[in-house]
Design brief:
Elements: H1 13-31, E1 39-51, E2 58-71, E3 75-86, E4 91-105, E5 108-115, E6 151-160, E7 163-170, H2 180-185, E8 191-192, E9 207-215, E10 219-229, E11 234-238, E12 243-247, E13 250-262, E14 265-280, E15 291-307, E16 310-321, E17 333-345, E18 350-359, E19 364-374, E20 379-390, E21 397-405
Parallel strand pairs: 8-12
Antiparallel strand pairs: 1-2, 1-21, 2-3, 3-4, 4-5, 5-6, 6-7, 7-9, 9-10, 10-13, 11-12, 13-14, 14-15, 15-16, 16-17, 17-18, 18-19, 19-20, 20-21
Length: 406
């Protein structure tokens, strides 16, 4: 009798997702009679970004996002290619932001392919929104969803009235993207060893996320579980060989979120408890490689207020390291705060806003003023800036953007 261990069963997540997508699409084409006309929309943007710190640095970009939707009787094929051209560097780039197939059944639907999924109630801060890894090289961030990468996954939704049970399976791990130059600048004489950074695409290394969400008359809430890899690597140090090894660790996360409306106020909250989080420590006598495992708690509270043409929003996020020690490099309590003031003019065609972001641990305060004007249903204009009011790592920019929808 032959036995096969899970370690010997390797799966390439991209191939699994692609084959499943193609087989599902082929099945629909063969057995579906009702095929509707495809829907195609385009978003063309021209963007000028000027670096306020370096007067010789600027970027002129043309961006084209195309949305293609082909509807069948019980499914939709969604494709979102993205094209960009940088005039200053004379570089062209193209990619598929998303490509997936939605299958619809009674009280159940299935999505297969490359996709983005948003969880939680926070705006601009990450607590329970753990499905898609982030891209920290995408700066300046013009939209919140731009900082997230699409992932290959299978997502299943089961509907129970106004409640939904959602399961996401990610067959392959995808880490966050960092600026390599920033990492190299903080090595302090150490050499980097990436041999332990990769996570092999095996069945036992896949990731699972589960969410139960409920939409009520007075309040909404979500409960979530996740068994994932930490998208941010922990730096393991070898003092003898002067080597730094980035390592991704397994995380078990449980959490939830809620929102409720009280007159003109909306109250929001999120929380997570994470087991398996690693932190750097300077006590190499007690902790090998200068890392220590500690549980983590995140708590977010937010409030929104609307009055006539005004919108105000405030959020505060607290991150706590349980059983903290003085040797751990990160402080036990860290805080992030956001504030938004927005006002509409000209029958909601002109939007003015000022958003502030404050990171207490980094002592960094960022201001983001913006003015957007909807000239018509197809043409929009936006001017804005990212300006650091407090902090050392300056990357101030001003930008102007035109948008054409067709």
């Amino acid at each position: 009798m032959m036995t096969i261990s899970k370690k010997n069963i390797k799966r390439n997540g991209s191939i699994i997702i692609l084959l499943t997508l193609l087989l599902s699409l082929l099945f629909n084409l063969l057995f579906t009679v009702d095929i509707n006309a495809a829907y195609i929309s385009n978003n063309l943007k021209n963007r000028f970004v000027y670096d306020l710190e370096n007067s010789d640095s600027y970027r002129v970009l043309t961006l084209l996002d195309t949305t293609f939707e082909q509807k069948f009787s019980n499914s939709i094929l969604y494709i979102n290619p993205h094209f960009s051209y940088n005039y200053h560097e004379q570089e062209a780039d193209s990619k598929l932001n998303e490509i997936y197939l939605n299958l619809y059944y009674n009280n159940f639907d299935l999505r297969i392919g490359k996709q983005k999924v948003s969880w939680g109630k926070a705006d601009g801060l990450v607590v329970t929104n753990l499905v898609n890894p982030r891209d920290y090289t995408n700066y300046p961030v013009f939209a919140y969803e731009d900082q997230f990468q699409a992932i290959n996954a299978v997502k299943a939704n089961y509907y129970l009235g106004s409640d939904t049970l959602e399961l996401i399976w990610r067959p392959e791990f995808k880490p966050a993207i960092y600026d390599k130059n920033m990492l190299a600048a903080n090595l302090n004489g150490f050499n980097i060893d990436n041999s332990q950074k990769g996570i092999e695409t095996e069945l036992e290394n896949s990731e699972l996320l589960l969410r139960y969400s409920s939409l009520g008359y007075e309040y909404d809430y979500e409960l979530m579980l996740a068994y994932i890899w930490d998208e941010q690597p922990t730096l393991h140090k070898n003092l003898v060989k002067k080597i730094v090894s980035p390592v991704h660790h397994r995380l078990a996360v449980v959490g939830g979120s809620f929102s409720t409306m009280r007159d003109a106020f909306v109250l929001r909250g999120e929380a997570t408890y994470t087991d398996g989080k690693y932190y750097n420590t300077n006590d190499f006598n007690r902790y090998q490689a200068g890392v220590v495992e500690r549980d983590q708690v995140k708590l977010l509270a937010g409030i929104d207020y609307s009055y006539q043409d005004y919108q105000l929003s405030y959020q505060v996020l607290q991150e706590t390291i349980l059983k903290h020690e003085d040797s751990i490099e990160q402080e036990q309590f860290t805080y992030q705060m956001t504030f938004l003031l927005k006002r509409m003019f000209l029958r909601d065609r002109l939007a003015t806003e000022l958003s502030l972001y404050y990171d207490a641990s980094q002592e960094q305060l960022m201001a983001k003023p913006k003015i957007a004007y909807d000239y018509s249903d197809k043409i929009n204009f936006t001017i804005g800036a990212n300006y650091l009011l407090k902090g050392e790592q300056r990357d101030d920019v001003i930008y102007f953007e035109t948008e054409y929808l067709f």
